[in-house]
Amino acid sequence: MAMAAATVMVVEDDASIRDLVIEVLGSEGLTAVGVENGAEALHRLRRDPVRPALILLDLMMPVMDGWQFRAEQLRDPALARIPVVLMSALQNEECARVAAEDQVTKPFDLDVLVDTVARFASKGTPPPAP
User: Fold this and answer.
1) Which of 3, 43, 47, 55 registers the highest number of CB atoms within 10 A of its CB?
2) What is the pTM of this model?
3) Where are the domains of the chain?
4) What CATH fold (topology level) applies to the domain 7-121?
5) Which helix (H) or strand (E) is 86 found in, with range?
């Protein structure tokens, strides 16, 4: 079942995983954009006026990892309201250090990923911070 058009940012350093997630979400009617690390994600979020409805975030990445990205995102009032779902093989105690709305554990079931994304994408893009 295709979802209403929404944009999802996929922050993942593994190109094969990033490309697979983008392809799967695209087949569900979503626009998915991929970036390699947290620094690239912040740069794109700050320059692009269109905000994603959701950020799928890997934790273990070079340049700026997921923990650093999320801390920076939450400090930026223009970006803080964008929900984040972690995509990680790390155990829950490691992920608990990140204020995220949900997590899909790698290796993930694509149906679980799509269902998780659908819960957030159906809400649309969050309004800008006041």
Assistant:
1) 55
2) 0.87
3) 7-121
4) Rossmann fold (3.40.50)
5) strand 84-88
